[in-house]
Amino acid sequence: MFKGIFESLSNFFSSLFGQRPEPKPIPKPPIDKEDKEIESTIQDAPEVPVESISTINEADILEDPFIPIEEPSTSPNSTQPKANTGTVSNIPLEEKTDATTPEEKQKEKIEAAKSKSRYLWCLDNGHGKLQAGKRSPRFTYKGQEVQLLEYKFNRDIVERIMKSLDQYGINYFDIVPDYKEVGSFLKNRVERANKKTSSLPKIYLSVHGNAGPRSHGDWTNASGIETWYHSKKGEKIAAIFQRYLTTNLPNWRNRHLKSTSIKGLYVLKHTNMPAVLTENGFYNNLREAKEMMDDSVRQKIADAHVSAILYIEKHDF
Length: 317
Ligand SMILES: [Zn+2]
Fold this sequence. Notes:
15% strand, 7-stranded mixed β-sheet, 9 helices, 37% helix, alpha/beta, two-stranded antiparallel sheet, Aminopeptidase
């Protein structure tokens, strides 16, 4: 009896003073070899070893006469786009119509343009909400402390591009339409684009913000715009995007076209179609981060992409 009481007391004190059995370690899920490979894969320009980067001036790729440098892109919100090179006038619109209201007429025009759109543009908004890094240091913008999150920036630009393409009747495929989809999603992005069936040839466009090595505190001196490619066909498409981006943002440094022989950026290497990746300013450059927060600058970036798309839709190469 005394022994029983002693044991009960002993258990009681043990529970009070934490002498509990060691918790069993939680077994880790087996790491898929492929996932491991993707984890260590280059996703974005800042991850590419500097010594492996090749830079080409887009002027060496583009033939003359080509995109007029002074040509700004048209407003994507215009329903009556200007008749300019590389803009919506590239898409011939039907004249004959039974539509009665302006809305119906516009809808018909868009449908007519869509039937003539030559490519399916697979639009990748880069990165997910929970992806580590890919954000600026905190800074003050319009009197508030803010942080630029790359996935939000990329998604905003792609949304603006899609809004314009809807107006211009250009076919596109929104690769990651759900805002809640998190993580880097590299493999899924590529698979979705590769598996998408279309009677049209596909072109992959991935939109990003850049980051550079720290040069003062948390910030970098690196700045500007660059466009990445992997294949020969991607090179020419990249040159057109770079030309329009630097035309629309003349105050930003032109970092030209980039490629790397080592590994290659995952989405460019594994997509089974011509693919380009644009890096639109450095979010850890304080001056550029502030600009990248600006609505009108974002619209200029989106407009430049749309102008490049419209140009490519019009020209054979
Ligand atoms: Zn990125």
